[in-house]
Amino acid sequence: MKPSLPSTNTPRAGKACMTHAGLPAAATGRAAGEFSYEAFGLRFASEIEVPELSPGDGASPSHVSVGYGSVPESLPGAYRFGARFQARPGELLFRIPGVAAYWVREGKRIVIDREPSAPEDDVRVFLLSSALAALIHQRGLLPVHASAVDGNGEAILFTGTSGQGKSTIAAQLSRARGLSLMCDDMSVLSLDGKGGPVLHPAFPQLKLWRDALDHLGDNPRDYPALRRNLEKHSVMTPERFGTRPLPVKHIVDLGFNNTGAVTLTPLGGAGKIDLLINRTYRKRYLLGLGGRKNHFRVCAAAASGITATALSRPWGWHAVEEALDLLTRRCLQ
After folding, report:
1. CA-to-CA distance for 156 and 248, rounded, in angstroms?
2. 166-177 and 320-331 helices, crossing angle to 10°
3. Is residue 6 within 8 Å of 76, Cβ to Cβ?
């Protein structure tokens, strides 16, 4: 649900906006000099240039401002997790040393207080991940830690903890099997009029480690690093990106084993609900933001409309092709 609280501070007027179909509009308009983008079914009018996002039409009114400004030192009464994050209903504040502080408010506004020496790439990394995740939670949508592809008009999601190969599997299916990429790292779901899960396209970027690029036959030097001193690279894929919302057909939870075999194990009703709950992107935000009842409701409704399996494979690249063949036979027919 979209909370509404009095603000703790008044930031400098933001310059960017988003909206989502089905949510109440509080249009702020669009000022000259702003960039227009789209992602997750939302419209951005951004003071900040974000080349990772898909261009928007620039004509429609916007609902969430994103821009530079001042942020509060703290949120009174907030739930704190770790040294960097604090949240209360309607607001989340976090600070990344050497980069910026991000203040996300009521599903409508993101204000960024950037460190003077912070590279723009670093600022955008946290805008497009942690800050957007907070915004998605505030709007009552479900962000899943997953990559996704278009499997013949229905979305297939690949979930898992970090390092399980979500981006690599999506990249392989896109390149070798011709499927359109829908999302990488964070996939956003809503419920349609009948309660079925719908995936909203993110933006045409894959985030791949150096060894994944080597395996795909690419030169990592051809792609910029996401951050300084990080061997993870930004791979833009606009020519292989799906741009329309799709019903969610299947979720595959990725993992590794030491048995030497590639296996697919179906998940039942409770297992599907647990999967969506446990794979919720930045789930801990809900401890401060609230909305846990709505989160469970959306997870339960989405689980009832999908099939789900756990895919387990040996470590090493030799098992990737076998896993892709098994996925193609079981999930893409």
Report:
1. 6
2. 70
3. no
Of 139, 162, 183, the residue that ends a domain is 139
The pLDDT, as a whole number, for residue 36 is 84
- Pick from 91, 111, 139: which residue ends a domain? 139
Answer yes or no: is pLDDT of 27 > 80. Answer: no
Residues 184-224: tens digit of each pLDDT: 999 999 999 999 999 999 999 999 999 999 988 999 999 99
Q: Please tell me the pTM assigned to this model.
A: 0.88
pLDDT in tens, 137-192: 999 999 999 999 999 899 999 999 888 889 999 999 998 888 999 999 999 999 99
CA distances in angstroms from 256 to 158, 277, 311, listed in the order given? 14, 21, 8
Residue burial 60-84, b: 16+ Cβ < 10 Å; e: rest: bebbbbbbbbebbeebeebbeeeee
Are 159 and 106 in a shared domain?
A: no
- Whole-number Å distance between alpha carbons of 232 and 247: 30
